[in-house]
Ferrochelatase (Alterirhizorhabdus solaris), 332 residues
Amino acid sequence: MIPADHPAVPVPAIGVLVVNLGTPDAPTPSAVRRYLAEFLSDRRVVELPPILWQPILRGAVLTTRPRKSAHAYSQVWREDGSPLAAITRAQALALAPLFPPGGIVDHAMRYGKPAIAERIAALREKGCDRILIAPLYPQYCAATTATANDAVFAALARMRWQPAIRTLPPYHDDPAYIAALAASIETGLAALDFTPDVILASFHGMPQRTLEQGDPYHCHCQKTARLLRDALGRDLRIAFQSRFGAAKWLGPATDATLAALPGEGVRRVAVVAPGFSADCLETLEEVAIRGRETFLHAGGSDFAYLPCLNDSPDGIEMLRIVLARQLEGWLP
Ligand SMILES: C=CC1=C(C)c2cc3[nH]c(cc4nc(cc5[nH]c(cc1n2)c(C)c5CCC(=O)O)C(CCC(=O)O)=C4C)c(C)c3C=C
Ligand SMILES: [Fe+2]
Ligand SMILES: [Fe+2]
């Protein structure tokens, strides 16, 4: 018998916490400023000593970028909010019924809301004494995967009764991921009214220095592209987008590539973004809107942006396979 004054003991459950980057609450300069202040103060993202970086961030960056980025966000904002927030929510909802009784799926954002610490506490309240943390980045990167896991462990540091934790390894070369991407690209290509001369795979960029320091991100992107070439049975060019700051970034740059392709005789292009598990500002505004303008302005005739896996049935089935593998021994 549990004594009447004993703290409640919930029925044990298994949690899955899907995590993505985070996004502003509104497409306004003040909301974007709050978001960027948190994001760009993360030392995993900008690896400069705070004494050097914070004056630049608080001075130049946060006084100019929020207005420009808010305008960009307003071009892709949906009725249900930021695309990244809406799609991540939809992914968690679609995954929820796919795990046996005792499996509880939730989602969180590394920056902004819903916060990682808050959702871990909520899962713990529901009885989850084991939680799989799933940062939805197929390619491992310290600036994305590692910082999401850091935030989890920082939250655990404040808990008396910690849940056991597993973290999702990168899935950049997982056959289920490659097959889902290949199927989605084939479907996207079949729906076009033109045949692209080139398929361009655009990954988010990173400072070149991180490659030299041992971050596997660049290799993971290259391997995804190679496996995708094999799966599609055709060539695929690779480029890196969203350059930020003054340092040298991984190349070739997506915008420069789109500007140069017509000069190489490429008139029709299809762009895919396999490194993003959900469409977001970087794919919908930077690639699908500005990338298109760049390519057509340089003399291209046809441009298509093919969407990310998002919460498509194939995308959700891929995530189910990848997550279920990590739950072995925890869930039947
Ligand atoms: C998919 C992997 C990502 C990596 C790697 C990455 C690295 C990285 N990003 C910045 C700076 C910014 N990124 C921004 C937006 C953004 N970045 C990712 C993903 C990766 N970033 C996503 C999914 C998003 C979209 C968020 C959304 O709300 O839709 C932004 C904010 C937008 C803007 O003002 O341009 C910045 C800034 C750095 C510095 C970096 C690596 C060091
Ligand atoms: Fe980014
Ligand atoms: Fe490499």
